[in-house]
Structure formats: structure tokens, C-alpha cells
Amino acid sequence: xxxxxxxxxxxxxxxxxxxxxxxxxxxxxxxxxxxxxxxxxxxxxxxxxxxxxxxxxxxxxxxxxxxxxxxxxxxxxxxxxxxxxxxxxxxxxxxxxxxxxxxxxxxxxxxxxxxxxxxxxxxxxxxxxxxxxxxxxxxxxxxxxxxxxxxxxxxxxxxxxxxxxxxxxxxxxxxxxxxxxxxxxxxxxxxxxxxxxxxxxxxxxxxxxxxxxxxxxxxxxxxxxxxxxxxxxxxxxxxxxxxxxxxxxxxxxxxxxxxxxxxxxxxxxxxxxxxxxxxxxxxxxxxxxxxxxxxxxxxxxxxxxxxxxxxxxxxxxxxxxxxxxxxxxxxxxxxxxxxxxxxxxxxxxxxxxxxxxxxxxxxxxxxxxxxxxxxxxxxxxxxxxxxxxxxxxxxxxxxxxxxxxxxxxxxxxxxxxxxxxxxxxxxxxxxxxxxxxxxxxxxxxxxxxxxxxxxxxxxxxxxxxxxxxxxxxxxxxxxxxxxxxxxxxxxx
Amino acid sequence: xxxxxxxxxxxxxxxxxxxxxxxxxxxxxxxxxxxxxxxxxxxxxxxxxxxxxxxxxxxxxxxxxxxxxxxxxxxxxxxxxxxxxxxxxxxxxxxxxxxxxxxxxxxxxxxxxxxxxxxxxxxxxxxxxxxxxxxxxxxxxxxxxxxxxxxxxxxxxxxxxxxxxxxxxxxxxxxxxxxxxxxxxxxxxxxxxxxxxxxxxxxxxxxxxxxxxxxxxxxxxxxxxxxxxxxxxxxxxxxxxxxxxxxxxxxxxxxxxxxxxxxxxxxxxxxxxxxxxxxxxxxxxxxxxxxxxxxxxxxxxxxxxxxxxxxxxxxxxxxxxxxxxxxxxxxxxxxxxxxxxxxxxxxxxxxxxxxxxxxxxxxxxxxxxxxxxxxxxxxxxxxxxxxxxxxxxxxxxxxxxxxxxxxxxxxxxxxxxx
Lengths: 492, 418
Description:
heterodimer, A: alpha+beta, FAD/NAD(P)-binding domain, Arc Repressor Mutant, subunit A, 3 domains, eight-stranded mixed sheet, five-stranded antiparallel sheet, 13 helices, 31% helix, B: alpha/beta, Immunoglobulin-like, five-stranded parallel sheet, 20% helix, globular
């Protein structure tokens, strides 16, 4: 099947979803192409969910040249202070201010961080401040002994990233954006003569378009090459991450991390929006973009480093462990621009802190496109509020009674660890962006993310999906095609 | 607000026995709250034989064992609320907050019995490395898929952990035509009952790999295989012992954890070793009028013991609701001595009128030992055992005459080598 649209966004991770939402404000035909069975991306699913107020501060510690580019550093501060609060309010995404502290073992680390703080100030980070040893231990009483001080920023926020991406895309779809999942972008079709984008070739058909926006993260180089111009390489930086249970006695209030090193921020202990703790990630560069395995040594190393911060950290309290792949780029600078070579091609690549910067990147891209000549007429009827699925767990007893009276399925709890009801699962299946797999349900509602890891609810969710989609239970997948859960019926 | 004398949470074997005993001990209004669509709990998916030898004197399947209790429950005037999930308990007021399709259900109870059973430990809790594809199940979840939902979970399986459910599922999968490539156990000994090894593994030629671990899981979308390796006494992989098994399914049977999220909401104190509430010999928790029994208290290996223990809780809860449970006076604490991992109950109320059975597990396997109960420096009771194993629950019964003479704060249970 072939399509015709004004703008096609390739990749439905956090950046692609944010761009889709931002462009849905205007009188434009916008399509999103995603190769996976669900939106939500790869790296966007595999991180600790922090809107990082200390991005400028900590990334300055890497001594990466690109961080000297004020355009990029401004995106962080603008995103945090100006854009996020409104987006979060409009989209009703779970968001919690936690604060962040970097702790120093010695004066050398304090001195390095003071240099970063001063540079950060010039780039709009006005809130990160030095704290004394006494203040460090007041902020984090669980901290191991021996730290001499640190730098603290109260603005660091934990956010439910899964819900944020779904919320942005849902809102984009409610405002007319069309999303094609299970659709792989093969090549950007460029008129060789005029060096102008004509459209996008996909494995599901041709999409005629004036603009193609490359939001493919780790696969961005593969797509960029199809235009004939690509002067960078994308590669994964694996991060192994144990997630800990809720309500642990040793859980810190702020995010706690060591003095950032030269290549990465180091293993942090991060309270998440849902009340769990994220530990890590490790940082190992690799080549295989599909690799997501954890290793015994990797997880143990992360825990060992975490215990240097909080000695009580215990892997036995972990509810899951995963490996995420951050999308790194060589050279490492972020590129957010409309192409000078190909008219109609735009890209956002090398984005290593998508959760923090995505809404700002979306606004920035909108501005780039407008400057490039794209007509952006605001929609009369743009609806900034998504129709959020009412969450049983957040309701008062009166609201619960009301919800059950309206829909009795709100009275059937399917996931007991996270208290998710059948009504919410049915709605996630029938609300854009439509959930089609057990993992898609999990990311939208947290069903199966608790301490029993789906032991109780997964068999029930498989049956609900099959019933609602009117398909045989054997076709229900964990995520991608090939991840079917049931192979057959036992007794015919 | 509904009002009952005794409210029982969970209609598995513990809840069924407790509700029945409460009713028969004089509680007028008894309610049994169950989250599933029927009574019986996990017994309903345990379609194998092996239940009831001790309690009924004959061998039954899980559903048959449950059916006997369900029939008795139905004959009595006991209110049963199915498809109803308890969300929290107000411990001081003894009010249960629950929901079902009809709305919010609040129950004010004279006494409450916690009988929610347990949940399975997961792959994450034993931190097995590798990818995270489809085809990884806890043994109980696979059991539900197959026995309740009639859905087959794979074609070639490896089972991690030699717990009872894992071994029973090894046999069950084999009977369904699934090739079971082996059971991998990290400990040097079996985690479950010896009879299950004989009947479920040996009889079907399923290999058991003791002192082995899964060092990797492969497969991007569906499980493609595992790596297995022998480990030393420090649980470190012995180099050169690694081998691969191709499979599309992995079942984890790596232990059970008492399900006490609701108990915590009531302020019930838990024993860090059992994971269940700390109770006295009436099965009463630290919160007055809240009792606990079955796997919510500690993980049992025989359902028959659960029924017996739960009847005690049911009777005590009924007496409490009627104001007839004798005043809480001082209690003797039970302590774990040599090679004892845990004991339950953890306390015995002084001046009791009954014999007290103490359930416990040992920390490591031992042969030819004596089990001792000691207080005031004197041995009150001593029993011989030819073999003890952490996988099997042990118990001793202290006579009320023995208990009445104790002045000490503590009663110690221990093993002594012959």
C-alpha cells in the first residue's frame, strides 16, 4: 500500500514521538514509521527514566567537545525549565522531583566538579550547588562513609518514560498523526537531479513525502547512508541495569552518583517514578545493535560499584535486570539539523540523553523546518490533552466505586503487584497507540513489572489480548513476531 | 460496610480449612474472600496425585483434595465472595478493603485470617544472565497455562531448580509431548521431595544436574538455548564444564515467597527468614485479631500439614471473635539452634491448654541426628531422625505438660549429631 504525506518521521522512540506530537499542532499530514511491533523505541525503553537537570553539569565532566556547543546545552536547560512542565501537565505523565547528588571521594574530584559547575553556570545550569560533607550525609544517610562533599541539584526528576512516549504518540494520533508499526524504512528516495527528497521506501510500500525526519537513534546511520551522504557512525554503548523492588529500607531520596568519569556518568542509584530503584548503568561500547543480553560479571560489577555508594545494595532485592543500548555516535556530537545536501531531509542523531531533551528537540526541529520553508499553520482544533486511561491504582475509594459502576471490569484486578485491572488492559488494547503484545500492555500499564514479573498476570493478559483482538491465543506475542508465548493447545 | 465475625482472605487449602474450622468453632458469620473465579487456589492446577495421604488417609489429586473441603464449605452457612481482590487491611480497625465487579467491598471483621498463599521466585531474583525472550516461565505459571488454560508453552524445555513444582512440571510437560532436557539445580542436593525425584524425573529418564547453574540464556525473540555449567562450593563456575542445551522453553522453579503485601498494609510483622508473619501457637500475628496460616506463613511441602495448621488458626480466630481466646499474656520465644533455619510458630503463649506442634526446616542435610527442644538448660524433648533435608519440613510436638513448667524466656530447637 502506498501513501502520500507532508512529513514522515522514521522511528517512534522518544525523539520521534516528541516530534510527532509537536508537528501535530499544525495543519500538516504527518506519518510515523516504526519497524517494531510497538512504538517506544529501543533506548527509550531501556533507561532509568530521568529528566536530567544536571545534564550540563555532568556532561561537561566528560570533556566532550560537543558539549561546548551552546545550542545543544541550551536544549537541556530549556527542556527542563520551560517545556517539560507544560507537556507533563497536558499529557498527565507520572513525574516526580527527586534531586541528584554527585559525591566526591577526594579534593581532586571536588575541584573537577567545581570547574564543571562554573562552566555549567555559563550554560544556564543555575541550580547545581556545592554541598558540604555534613549536608551530603543529611541528604543521603545511607551513603557509605568516606565521602568528603558533593554537588547537588534539586531539579532532577524521575519520569515514567514508557508512559511518556505512549502519551506523546497517543496525543499525536489524537491530533491526526498516522503511525505505521511493523514497517521498516528501507531507503529515502531522493531526486538525484534536484537533490530533493521525494519520499520513503518501506517494506510495506512507498510513502510520498516532502520531508523525511530521521529519528532512528542507533540505526540513524543506516538510513542516512541511503541519501548518499553520511559522515558518522552509530554504535551501541551497552548499559547493564538491575531494577530493585519498591520500599527498600536503603533506598535514597535523591539520585546518587559518583563524580562523573571521562566517558560516562558512572553507576548511579536512581529512584524511579514508580518507586523502584534503578542501578547502573554500566558503559561498554560495542558493535551489535541488536544485542541486549545481561552477563553475570556485568551485573555483579554494577552492584559492586553501587555498593561503593550504598553498601546495603543487594541483588536479591532486584525485580529484573536488563541491558540497554545507548545510541552513541562517532564523532560524538549531537546533530539536529535539516540537511545542507538533500532538500527535505532532517535528522536528530547522536542523542544520548533523549529522555531529557526530546521535547526541546521536537520544538527545535519544528523551528528548523519552518525556517526551511515548511508552512506551519496552527490547527484550530489541536487538543493538547490526551485521553488518559483512568488508572485504578491512583483512584480514591469513591472514584473506584464510580469506575466499577461504569465498567465492572475495573473491579477485576489482573496484575496484583502493580494493581492493574482488566478495564485498563482492555482500554490499552483499544486506545491509540494500540497495544498488541504482552510487553506493550506492560509498558503502558506496568502490568507484569512488579515483583512477581508477570507470574500471576501474564497468562491472564494473553487470554485478554486474544479475546479482545479476536485472534487465536497462539498468535499472541511477548513483543516482536517470533516471540509467541503459546505454541499449541494441549487437548484438542 | 459488611460485618462478619471471621473474615478469611484466600480460598486455597489454608483458607478453606481455616474458614471451616472457624465456623465449626462457633463463629456465626464467616466470609471467605477469593480473587479467582472459584475456590481451591493453586490446588486446582495441581492435577497430579499425591495429596491427602496424611489428612484423608488416601491419595488424591489437587482438585479432589480441594473438592472435599469445598463441599464442606458449601454445606455450612459460610459466605463465599469470588472474583474479589483484597487490596489492603486496616489492622487496628480490622477492616478489609476489597473490590469486585459489583464495586468496592469493605468488610469489618471480628477477626481476620491471612491465607493468601505464596508467589514464585522469578528468574530475576536468581539473576540468571542472558537475553529476555519469550519462553521463560515460572513453573507455576506454565502449570496454569497447561492445566487450567489448556495452552502448551513450548516443545523443548529446561527446568531451573529442583523444587517440587519444577519436578512435577518436568513430568507434566513430558506427558504433553514436550521434550524435557534436564533439571538444573544450583545446590548439591534436591530442593524438593525425594519422592518427586523418583516419580517425576527418574521414571522418565530426565537428567538432574546438581551443583550446576545456567550461565547464559540465548534467543532474541523466543528462547533458543541455555548454557549450563558446573559450579564449585563458592558457586563459581568451574571452567571447562560449560555445555549448551538447545531449547525453546525455560521453567524456573527456584523457590516460593509468602505473599504478604496485604499483611504489610495491616502492620503485620514478618519473619525475615520465612518471609511470613511472626505468629504464636494460636497462629495470631503481632496485630491483635489477625491470624495467619498456610503458605502465607511459611512455605510448606505437604498440603495436609497446611490443613491441620489452618484449622488451628480458624479455631483461634473464632474464639477471638467471640471474646473467648484467652488474654494475651507472656509468651515463650522459640529460637533456632544448631542447623535450624527457621521455626514456626515463633512464640508459645504461656498457660496454653493444648499440645503445640512446631514446624521447622534445617539449614543443611544431615544424617543420624537427634532433634532437641531445650529450655532452662534442660532438654524437654528429643527425637531421632535418620535423615533431614532443607527441602522437607520437619516437625515436633511439645506436650502441654512439658510447656507448663518452662520458666525461661526462650525455647531452643536444634539438631545434635549422634
